[in-house]
Each structure stands twice: as C-alpha cells, then as structure tokens.
C-alpha cells in the first residue's frame, strides 16, 4: 500500500449509533496505517441497578432487573430467578423448566427477528429502516413481522405480556398457562415453521464482506440440549467454568469513555458471546434438521465472519421454533400440574450467595446475588452480554478499517456501523450519524 | 393551550405533507419505544399516516425538526438530559411522554431516596468518569407535557390509540379507573380478599386490563397511581389486616413509579 504521499488520516465519529438498543457513539482514529484509537462510547445514562437492588427482597429481582432491557426482559428474569433459586437451594419442577425454556424460545424469536429485519437487513440492502425496505420488499418484511409476532405470542401466552412479562417468579410461575392457549400456540408455531426456514434461506442470499477473525467464543454448554437456561461456560480456547467461577475468570474494567463496564478474560483479553459463539460451540446439540439446513446454507463450525451472524440468528430462530414445538407437545401430553415451591419456605438461616448464567439473545448473561436471612439482597452483580462484546467490537473496527483503506467515506462509515450492528448491541442506537473527517497529511 | 387547540395547530395545512413523528430516548430500558416496533400488524399502516422522521432505535435516517408529534421515553437523569429535553420541547409541536420513566422517573428514581455517591461507587470503579444527576425525574418536571401515557411498559394499544386520536384531532380516551375496577369488570376473584395478597389494584391507574390478577398475582403498580387515589387508606389497611411491615410497604410502593405514589403516614409498629 502506498504510503507517505497518499497517506490519509481519518477520524470516524458517530455521535449517536442508530438501530441499536441504548445510547452509544463511535470514535475512531486511523493514521493511514493502523487504527490508533477506537472507542465505542456508551453514554447510556447509568441507572445503578446493582446499587438499587440492595435492600430489595430477592423475590423482586426478576421484575426489577427486567427493566434493564425492554428487548430481552425474559433473559434478565431467567438469570435472576435461577440465581436466587441457586442461593436458596430451590429445585424447580421439570414442567416449570420446560415452560421457561419455551418462554426463552419466544424471546429469542422475537429479539432475533427484530434484529434481522428491522436493524440488520437494512444495512445489507441499503435502506435506512424497515419501513423503507418494506416499500421494495413488502412480502419479505411481512414475513419477518409475522414471525416476530409469533415470538411475542409465546412470551405473551406464558409471560403475560411481551415487554416485562409478569408471570415469572422464583420457584415457578404465578400461573401455569391454560392448555387451550398452549395448544393454540403450538398450532401457530407449526403453521409458521416453513416461513422461518424460508426466512433464513433468504438471509443467506445477502452479500457478505469477506472477513474473519480468530475470536475466543464463549457460550453455555449443556450435555443434553442447545443451552439456554443452564450449563457450564465454555470456549473454543478451552475455558470450562461453572457460574460460581465467573467472577474469578472474567474481570470488568471501567473505561473513561463508557458507562458500560468492559469485560475480559483475566490474563487473556477480549472474547465474544452471542449467536456466533453458541452456534460454533454447540453445533452438535442443534437438531439434525437445523444442522442440515445450516450445511445447505454453507454454514458450519467454525464460522467466524461476524457479518454472517444474521444467518446464524435465522438458524437459531428455526431451532427455537422446532424446540418450542417439541416442548409444547411434551407439556400438552402431561396431565400433572407442576409443583411450585413457595420462596418463604426456603429463607436461609445464614446469609447465602447464588449466581446463574443463561443465554440471552445477545449472549451469556450473568447474575449474582447475596441474600440475608430475611430474603433481602445485600449485594448484586450483573454482567450483560453487550459489556462482554464491547472489546471485541472495538477490535473488529480496528482490524477492519485498514482493510477498507481504499473505500470512500460513505462505504467506510457504512461498514463500521454494520460491524457494530453485527453484535446486535442492545437496539436503540447502533449506528446512526457517522461523521467522517478526512484530511491528507 | 389545551389538547384540542394544539391539535389544530399541529396538523399541517398542506394535505400532501404527513405529520412528522419523532421518538426520543432518555434514561430508560427502550421497552416503551419498542412497543411501537412490536405493533407488527399496524407499524406499516402507521408509517403511511405519519412520517417517522426521528427514531434512532429503528432508523438511521434523521430529519430536521420541527416535529409534529414527539414521543418521549425515559427520565431526566444526567446534566446533558437537562439541556436536551428543552431542545426536544422546542422542536415539538405536541409532546407525549411514554412510560413510567418519562412520567414518574422510573425504577432509577430509587436514587432519589439514596445517596448518589454511594450508588456510583457500588457500580463503578472510577466514580469521576460518571456524569449523573442526584435525581431521576419525570419529563413533566422540566417541560410542558401535552399528554402522559402510563405504564412500565406502556400498553401498545394505548399508544396506537394516542397516535390515532392525534391524527384525527381528537383527545385520547384513556380510562382513568383503577386496576381494581378493571378486575371487578372482568369478574376476577379479589386476591386481597380470597388470598390475602398485598395488592396495589385499588390505587393503581388502569391500562393493563388487570393483567397480574388474571395471572393470580397481586398488582404491583406498573401504571402508577390513579388520580386522587387513597394511598394512606390502603397502606393502613395492609398494615392492620395483613400485618405488612413498614419496609414491606415501602418496597411495595417504591418500584417503577416511586416518586408519584403519595408517601403514606405509617402507623407505629
């Protein structure tokens, strides 16, 4: 690459990232050879959840932490109830476990389709948003919206409402959904499975930049299933830990420009969580039908092109449809009402600690609570997936920009925004105004 | 200016120009603005009636103001927010705050009863990096709000109703009843009477169609207090009849709308 005369420095500044959840900005400085500074700034106002949870009853953790994220409240509720149940040694009924998994399938479907159609696909097709995309591709968008709605139907039926569901509690649910409603849900899911398959096949026809990086990928692993609610945290570099080892293994760093803490593996550095990590780590646990579909689309482990995460989300949607159908049939075939223990019977005689990890749509979500003898929380720690991916997003950008040295400003900006959105960093502001300032040296 | 006269000025005179909709975010979980994207069956129809001119969560296109209808999510909690909400108001002909954060400060308003430096040090290793206000406050405390839509989260059908009535130049017809009334209307057995659950239904604004009682769960106040509710009577009753302690009552009222429930006078224990 010619240097000196043609050497340009470029500063990319995105003051407000669009089509992501939360408020963020990007600052990137490129000196013509390498990126000397990259900052994904999260200026989302701090809301101090770990502080305000102190003194609250552990039964409230699920409802309070759901308010961290309106897009994946089920994930927060799942990690919260599992952590509290671990602390109080509450065993949950197998049917409760199954219904929680169906509920989680609903959130994966709803959240993934929101990202595929409303946030990510417009990048690939050159639209500002899904409304503009719908004018040219009405049938494709209609299919996406229809599938997304089915995800919400699941969360509604089991959780009560799609945003901040109300039916999840420590020990089980407030009410087991009526079989009539579960049967209707099963019929809706079965009727739409083909559309979910068409959807992922469509996403595989998009054009993908040639890009790969050797990530350390972390995902929960479980011996019997594609992990969602439980498992050990494993990586392709040999990490294999239980929830109670999370804080010994992962450290969080407070960076000046961000109100989100940056996570990294102690002594090793950045890693990724989320659909790509899950797909690569747990491929063999996917049903054969989904594995065959993946193969037909040219997707097999190890897939490490983050731009192809849109296909992997689509595959996870098909998986979630099939899994929800399988599990709902199981629940409908059983006549036994699940046993749902009452939290008050499990209050500890000495302070206890419990932690849990579950797979949010965007990746592993860790919760830890210390609970006193009255059931009050004395300390809490929450590590969300986006905090864990932040370092890798920055490294992707640092790695990507020099490869796009010849690209014009518009393409460079577009690729940077797209690279951020690959991670579905919680939706409200992922790559909005990118201003590129360029000057020749 | 009342709702009706603002509507008249808000509707653009040129018939070929669609009113411009803007969606703004302050401290929040994004759930209320997500309600609009969750209108899978109606979203494209809404986009035919309104020009979605500013909606960062959904679009990378940003039009200049002024905007005819602004939906504001989230509470004011940083020094920057103080200025930004003024700018949003200046650019908005009609401003609707959506959700518990925007209308009551949200769960993050629990800081209003605590020491903010203690809060910061619990979460962040380097407190000097954090720019925040000591309080989290509703939008209406800073600028004139034309309509408040309650709920944590809001109900998407109510949101569509507000947008629809705005387009028609009508005032929204949102029930001002309590959750308790909705519960009776739906013939749901009273959880306070039949199961001794501590329920906020008698003092909570309707909007969820008695969702929690339908799920055998006492109301925990997502929609905030209804107008002129008798919080003190309910808390006195819960203290005497259900033996709730003062901390239990405080927790019950201090969730997503903590600042808007009237602080009760607790009986001595």
Q: Nutshell version of this structure?
A:
The complex is a heterodimer of chains A (441) and B (269). Chain A has 441 residues and is α+β, with helices and mostly antiparallel strands.
Topology:
The complex is a heterodimer of chains A (441) and B (269).
Chain A: E1 8-16, E2 24-30, E3 35-42, H1 49-52, H2 61-66, H3 73-88, H4 94-125, H5 130-136, H6 138-159, E4 168-169, E5 172-173, H7 179-203, E6 218-221, E7 232-235, E8 240-241, H8 246-249, E9 250-253, E10 262-265, H9 275-282, H10 288-296, H11 309-333, E11 352-360, E12 363-371, E13 377-383, H12 385-403, H13 409-421, E14 433-440
Antiparallel strand pairs in A: 1-2, 1-14, 2-3, 4-5, 6-7, 7-8, 9-10, 11-12, 12-13
Chain B: H1 3-10, E1 20-25, H2 31-37, H3 43-49, E2 51-55, E3 67-73, H4 79-91, E4 92-98, H5 100-104, H6 116-123, E5 147-149, H7 156-168, H8 179-185, H9 191-195, H10 211-214, H11 231-241, H12 246-253
Parallel strand pairs in B: 1-2, 1-3, 3-4, 4-5
Main β-sheet description of chain B: 5 strands, parallel
CATH level-4 homologous superfamily of chain A: Cytochrome-c3 Hydrogenase, chain B
For the secondary structure, the number of strands of chain A is 14
Q: Ends of chain A: how far apart?
A: 16 Å
What gyration radius of chain B follows from the Cα positions, in whole Å? 20 Å
Strand content of chain B: 5-15%
On the 0 to 100 scale, the average pLDDT of chain A is: 90
Helix-and-strand structural type of chain A? alpha+beta
CATH architecture of the largest domain in chain B: 3-Layer(aba) Sandwich
